[in-house]
UniProtKB/TrEMBL annotation:
Keyword annotations from UniProtKB, A to Z: Cell junction, Cell membrane, Gap junction, Membrane, Transmembrane, Transmembrane helix
Membrane-topology descriptor: Multi-pass membrane protein
Protein family per UniProt: Belongs to the connexin family.
Domain Connexin cysteine-rich: 141-208
UniProt protein name: Gap junction protein
GO molecular function: gap junction channel activity
Location within or outside the cell: Cell junction, Gap junction; Cell membrane
Domain Connexin N-terminal: 42-75
Function: One gap junction consists of a cluster of closely packed pairs of transmembrane channels, the connexons, through which materials of low MW diffuse from one cell to a neighboring cell.
Transmembrane regions: 20-39, 77-97, 128-149, 185-203
Gene Ontology BP, a term: cell-cell signaling
GO cellular component: connexin complex
Amino acid sequence: MNWGVFEGLLSGVNKYSTAFGRVWLSLVFIFRLLVYVVAAERVWSDDHKDFDCNTQQPGCANVCYDHFFPVSHIRLWALQLILVTCPSLLVIMHVAYREAKEQRHRAAAGDDCRCVFPNPGKKRGGLWWTYLLSLVFKAGVDVVFLYIFHRFYRNYTLPRLVKCELPPCPNVVDCFISRPTEKTIFTLFMVVTTCICVMLNLVEATYLIGKRCRECVLAGSGKSC
């Protein structure tokens, strides 16, 4: 993993982020991503192999595992992290487009010309909408995945023992989950950090909308809106 690339991406987003956005980035890349890469992936590495059932019937353990764990925690978290960071990449692309447009304008009209974007360090126009929609999208993705986890795993906890009677199991068999307490702790940690990220996104979106409304009221007209 090239952390220099991540540093460049983070600096691009941080330039146009509020304090809430910077805290969100820290939560995602320091807590959620690093916990996923360093710890959680190892805890679930032996998930299927150590799912033991008290029967020798061929295929029974596989069927029961698929029933109780239709999608692995690790794969869901990976998909969630990918989707939740994509809007930040769109913001970076929009910023790069603005900078390239400004450079082309200066090259054509000279360095003493009027800037295309009078306040390039502030969110204005299309960039403001891109940033706001990225916040809504990120919050929506996290909420959807919280619901998916709750549907698959009630109360976000993993039991020590589950009972399965699906064919080809000969009868009701007991199946034992490896490291249930450790997995529950990691799951609850990811759920809590996800909830905090959702809250930060909503607070930042509210702050941006309130700030823009305040600017429009102070301006006395809709020209700057």
